C-alpha cells in the first residue's frame, strides 16, 4: 500500500499526484510540507464527529486497559461510515481517541482491510491462494474482473487465503463466503449483489455441513442463508460519482482495471490444463 | 473418535440452550469445584500440544505464567490465516460456546482475569456468532464477576483484526491487539512473562482451548490415552487442494497420513496422482507420495522432515507444475512479510523475483542454487517464523523436485529464446518519475 506522506515536493510544487488515479479528494493530493510540524491530536471543538461513531469508539475504548487497543476497531467503524479511511475519517477517530492522525495512518496503511483510497461500495474478495488456485481460482478471478468490468460499485480484489479452502475456489462478497464457484456462476453472483439479494444462497458457507462423515450422528437440516450484507450503507464518496462519469477507476492503469488489486499481476495457475506448450 | 466435531451441525448448537442441553458448561462447573492447581495438573496430564502450529504443550505454557495477584491475560488466537487452514472457522461458527467454556476454564487454571479473542477481520459471520455467544454467556453468569459463585472473575472481549497474516504470530498479534501495526517482537521475553500490555499472557489457539472442556470432563490422563505418545488427543485436520472431498475431519493423532488424504478426503481426482503435499499448511516443508504411510502426529511429521503445524493438509497432484506452487507460496509470503527484519523482507521478495525469472526463461540452473542458498540464509535468522515459513517449503520443493525445476528452467529458456522475451522492467520507477533518470554509477 502506498503510505500517505512520502518525499516532500520541490519548492513551487504545491500539488503532487500521489496516486495513479489522480484523486482530487481533499488531503491526499496535498504535498507534504516538511517545514510543518506533524499533525497534532485534533481539537474536539473544531472537529465534528458523528455522534454514532463517537459512541461506538468510546464504547470500544472502555473495553481495554489501554485505549489505543481500540484503534483498529475504531478505524473499521469509521470506514463503515465513510466508505474508506479518508483523511476526514482518520481525523475523527484521532479526535475521539486522542491520538495523532499519523498514528492511525500508520495502522490504516498496514492492514489489508483498511482502505486508504476511496473504494467502491461492494467488496468482492476472490481468494487466489494456493488451495483455491489448485481448484481454478485464477480463472474465477479473471471471470469476476471481466464481468464486473468498470462497474463503480464493485471493489474486486484478489485476496490471500480467506480460510475457506473447503469451498475452493471461493469469494467473500461483502463478507459473505460463497463457494465452490465456477466462472459461469459469476454473473448470477454479481447480479445478486447489485440487486441486494442474498448472494447465491445455495453456495453459502453458512449453510455447509462439516465434511467429516462421522461427525454428525444424524441428518440435520441446513441453516438459513445469510441475508444481503448490511455493509453497503457506506456513504458514496463524492469522488466515486466523479469517477463513474469520468471513466478511470482507482488504481486503474488503463480503463477497466479494477481498483486496489494490489497483489501484482496474476498469471495462470490452472490445474486442469498442464501449461506445457501453451506459450 | 469425534469430540470437537461431534454433532457439530445440530441446529442451534451456537445458542446457549442447545449447548447447555448437551452438557455444555458442565466442565466449567467441575473445574470451578477443583483448585486452580488441580485443573492445571489435568491440563498438564493431558499432554495436549498447541493446535495452532508450534505444538507446544499447553499445560506447560499455562504453568509458566507467574503466580500471584497481578494483571494476567489470556488471548485466544483466532487469526486463522495460514493458507490451507480452516478448522477454527468451523469450530467458532458452529460451536462458539465450546471455545468460550474452554477459555473460562483455561483462565481459571492460569489465574487470569482478562481475556480476549483475536479473530481475523475476514471472519465476519464467525465474529458475529461469537459476539452473540459471549453476550449469552455473560447473561448466564459464566463470564463476569465471581463466576457461578466461585472466586473466579473473567472478562472476555472479542477483538476483530483487519487483515494481516502476520497477526497470527503470537507477538505480532499482541502488538496488533495493543493497537499497533502487527510487527513481531523479539523473543525472549516470551508472552508468558511479558505479553499483552507488558503483563504475563497465555496465548492459545482456538482448537486447543476448545479441547479444554473435553479434557476437564474426561480427566487429563484419560484424554492422554487418545492418540499416540507425544501427540495426544484428537485433531481437526483441514484437507484441501487436489482432493475429492476437501473439508475438516477429526482424527485421533497418529493414524497414517494416507488414511486422511485418501480414506477421508478421497485423494486426488480420478486419473491424477499425488505429487506433493503440505502436512501443516503452506508453511510446512512439502512431503511426497513416499511419505504417505508416515503416521500423522507431531513427532513423526518432524522426523519425516516436515511439521504438523496447524494440521492443514494441502494436496497437489501431478497435473500442477511445482513451479506454480512455489510461485504462489513465495508471492504470498512476500506480500505478507511485515518488513521489520531484513532476511524475511528481502528474502521473500527476492525469492519471488527469482522464481519469476525462472518461469520467464531468464534463469540458468545456477539460479536454483542461489534460490536454495537464499532459503538457507533466511532460516533461523528472522524475528519470527514468517521468513522460515517460506524458506522451508521452497527449500523442500527444490530438494524434492530439483529435476523438475531444472527442466522447467530449460524449457522456459527454450521457449523464450532469450531475446524474443520482453526484458524485465527496470526497477525503481517511482524514483525515476519524481527525480528524473537514476544516476549511473559513473555519474555518482
Parts with pLDDT < 50 across at least 5 consecutive residues of chain A? 1-13, 18-28, 231-268, 270-279
Low-confidence stretches of chain B: 426-444
What class do helices, strands and sheet pairing of chain A give? alpha+beta
Distance between the termini of chain A: 32 Å
Terminal CA distance of chain B reads 70 Å
N-to-C SSE string of chain A, H for helix and E for strand: HHHHEHHEEEHH
Task: Enumerate how many helices of chain B there are, as a single number.
Answer: 18
The helix-and-strand class of chain B reads alpha/beta
Largest pleated sheet of chain B: 5 strands, mixed
What is the N-to-C succession of helices and strands of chain B? HHHHEHHEHEHEHHEEEEHEEHEHHHHHH
Oligomer: heterodimer
Keywords:
heterodimer, A: 279 residues, four-stranded mixed sheet, 8 helices, 27% helix, 6% strand, elongated, disordered N terminus, B: 444 residues, alpha/beta, five-stranded mixed sheet, four-stranded parallel sheet, globular
Detailed description of the structure:
The complex is a heterodimer of chains A (279) and B (444). Chain A has 279 residues and is of the alpha+beta class. Chain A is 27% helix and 6% strand. Chain A has helices at 51-61, 71-82, 87-97, 101-108, 130-133, 137-148, 186-194, 238-246, and strands at 122-127, 154-159, 171-173, 176-178. Chain B has 444 residues and is α/β, with parallel strands linked by helices. The N and C termini of chain B lie far apart (70 Å).
Quick gist of this model?
The complex is a heterodimer of chains A (279) and B (444). By secondary structure, chain A is an alpha+beta fold. In chain A, 27% of the residues lie in helices and 6% in strands.
SSE diagram, text form:
The complex is a heterodimer of chains A (279) and B (444).
Chain A: H1 51-61, H2 71-82, H3 87-97, H4 101-108, E1 122-127, H5 130-133, H6 137-148, E2 154-159, E3 171-173, E4 176-178, H7 186-194, H8 238-246
Parallel strand pairs in A: 1-2
Antiparallel strand pairs in A: 1-3, 3-4
Helix pairs in contact in A: 1-2, 1-3, 2-3, 3-4
Chain B: H1 16-21, H2 26-32, H3 36-46, H4 58-64, E1 73-78, H5 87-94, H6 96-110, E2 114-119, H7 124-139, E3 155-160, H8 170-177, E4 201-205, H9 206-218, H10 220-223, E5 227-228, E6 231-232, E7 234-241, E8 247-252, H11 257-264, E9 274-278, E10 287-288, H12 298-303, E11 312-317, H13 322-336, H14 342-359, H15 365-378, H16 386-400, H17 402-416, H18 429-435
Parallel strand pairs in B: 1-2, 1-4, 2-3, 7-11
Antiparallel strand pairs in B: 5-6, 7-8, 9-10, 9-11
Helix pairs in contact in B: 2-6, 2-9, 3-4, 3-6, 5-6, 5-7, 6-9, 13-14, 13-16, 14-15, 14-16, 15-16
Amino acid at each position: 500500500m502506498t503510505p500517505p506522506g512520502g518525499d516532500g515536493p520541490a519548492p513551487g510544487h504545491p500539488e503532487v499526484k500521489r496516486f495513479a488515479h489522480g484523486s482530487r479528494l481533499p488531503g491526499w493530493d496535498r504535498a507534504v510540507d516538511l517545514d510543518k510540524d506533524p499533525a497534532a491530536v485534533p481539537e474536539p471543538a473544531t472537529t465534528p464527529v458523528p455522534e454514532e461513531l463517537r459512541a461506538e469508539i468510546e464504547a470500544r475504548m472502555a473495553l481495554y486497559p489501554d485505549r489505543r487497543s481500540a484503534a483498529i476497531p475504531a478505524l473499521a467503524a469509521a470506514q463503515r461510515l465513510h466508505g474508506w479511511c479518508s483523511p476526514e475519517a482518520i481525523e475523527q477517530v484521532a479526535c475521539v481517541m486522542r491520538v495523532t492522525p499519523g498514528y492511525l495512518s500508520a495502522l490504516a496503511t498496514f492492514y489489508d482491510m483498511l482502505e486508504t483510497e476511496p473504494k467502491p461500495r461492494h467488496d468482492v474478495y476472490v481468494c487466489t491462494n494456493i488451495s483455491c488456485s489448485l481448484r481454478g481460482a485464477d480463472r474465477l478471478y479473471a471471470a469476476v474482473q471481466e464481468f464486473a468490468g468498470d462497474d463503480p460499485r464493485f471493489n474486486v480484489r484478489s485476496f490471500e487465503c480467506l480460510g475457506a479452502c473447503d469451498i475452493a475456489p471461493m469469494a467473500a462478497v461483502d463478507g459473505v463466503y460463497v463457494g465452490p464457484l465456477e466462472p459461469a456462476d459469476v454473473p448470477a453472483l454479481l447480479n445478486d449483489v447489485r440487486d441486494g439479494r442474498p448472494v447465491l444462497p445455495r453456495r453459502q458457507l453458512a449453510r455447509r455441513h462439516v465434511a467429516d462423515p462421522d461427525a454428525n450422528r444424524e441428518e440435520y437440516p441446513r441453516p438459513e442463508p445469510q441475508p444481503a450484507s448490511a455493509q453497503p450503507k457506506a456513504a458514496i464518496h463524492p469522488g466515486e460519482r466523479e469517477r463513474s462519469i469520468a471513466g478511470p477507476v482507482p488504481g486503474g492503469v488503463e480503463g477497466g482495471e479494477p481498483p486496489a488489486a494490489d497483489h501484482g499481476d496474476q498469471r495462470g495457475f490452472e490445474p486442469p490444463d498442464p501449461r506445457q506448450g501453451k506459450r | 473418535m469425534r469430540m470437537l466435531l461431534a454433532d457439530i451441525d445440530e441446529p442451534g448448537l451456537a445458542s446457549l440452550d442447545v449447548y447447555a442441553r448437551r452438557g455444555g458448561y458442565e466442565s466449567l462447573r467441575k473445574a470451578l469445584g477443583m483448585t486452580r492447581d488441580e485443573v492445571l495438573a489435568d491440563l498438564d496430564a493431558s499432554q495436549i500440544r498447541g493446535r495452532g502450529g508450534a505444538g507446544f504443550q499447553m499445560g506447560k505454557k499455562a504453568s509458566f505464567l507467574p503466580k500471584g495477584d497481578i494483571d494476567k491475560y489470556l488471548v485466544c488466537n483466532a487469526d486463522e490465516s495460514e493458507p490451507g487452514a480452516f478448522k477454527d472457522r468451523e469450530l467458532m461458527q458452529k460451536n462458539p460456546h465450546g471455545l468460550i467454556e474452554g477459555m473460562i476454564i483455561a483462565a481459571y487454571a492460569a489465574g487470569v482475569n482478562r481475556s480476549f479473542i483475536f479473530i481475523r477481520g475476514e471472519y465476519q459471520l464467525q465474529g458475529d456468532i461469537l459476539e452473540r455467544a459471549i453476550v449469552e454467556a455473560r447473561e448466564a453468569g459464566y463470564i463476569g464477576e465471581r463466576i457461578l459463585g466461585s472466586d473466579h472473575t473473567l472478562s472476555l472481549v472479542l477483538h476483530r483484526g483487519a487483515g494481516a497474516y502476520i497477526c497470527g504470530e503470537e507477538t505480532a498479534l499482541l502488538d496488533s491487539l495493543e493497537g499497533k501495526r502487527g510487527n513481531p517482537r523479539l523473543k525472549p521475553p516470551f508472552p508468558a512473562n511479558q505479553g499483552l500490555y507488558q503483563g504475563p499472557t497465555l496465548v492459545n489457539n482456538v482448537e486447543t482451548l476448545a479441547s479444554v472442556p473435553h479434557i476437564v470432563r474426561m480427566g487429563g490422563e484419560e484424554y492422554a490415552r487418545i492418540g499416540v505418545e507425544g501427540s495426544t488427543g484428537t485433531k481437526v485436520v483441514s484437507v484441501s487442494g487436489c482432493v475429492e472431498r476437501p473439508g475438516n475431519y477429526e482424527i485421533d493423532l497418529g493414524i497414517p497420513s494416507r488414511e486422511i488424504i485418501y480414506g477421508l478426503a478421497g485423494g486426488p481426482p480420478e486419473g491424477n496422482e499425488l505429487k506433493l503435499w503440505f502436512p501443516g499448511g503452506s508453511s510446512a516443508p512439502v512431503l511426497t507420495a513416499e511419505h504417505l504411510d508416515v503416521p500423522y502426529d507431531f513427532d513423526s511429521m518432524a522426523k519425516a522432515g516436515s511439521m504438523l503445524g496447524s494440521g492443514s493438509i494441502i494436496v497437489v497432484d501431478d497435473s500442477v507444475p511445482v513451479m506454480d506452487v512455489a510461485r504462489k507460496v513465495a508471492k504470498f509470503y512476500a506480500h505478507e512479510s511485515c518488513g521489520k527484519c531484513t532476511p524475511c523482507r528481502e528474502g521473500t521478495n527476492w525469492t519471488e523475483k527469482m522464481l519469476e525469472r525462472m518461469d520467464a526463461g531468464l534463469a540458468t540452473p545456477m539460479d536454483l542454487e542461489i534460490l536454495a542458498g537464499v532459503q538457507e540464509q533466511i532460516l533461523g535468522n528472522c524475528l519470527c517464523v514468517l521468513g522460515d515459513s517460506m524458506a522451508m517449503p521452497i527449500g523442500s520443493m527444490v530438494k524434492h523436485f530439483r529435476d523438475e525445476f531444472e527442466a522447467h528452467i530449460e524449457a522456459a529458456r527454450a521457449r523464450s529464446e532469450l531475446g524474443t522475451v520482453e526484458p524485465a522492467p527496470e526497477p525503481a520507477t517511482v524514483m525515476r518519475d519524481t527525480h528524473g533518470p537514476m544516476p549511473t554509477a559513473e555519474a555518482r
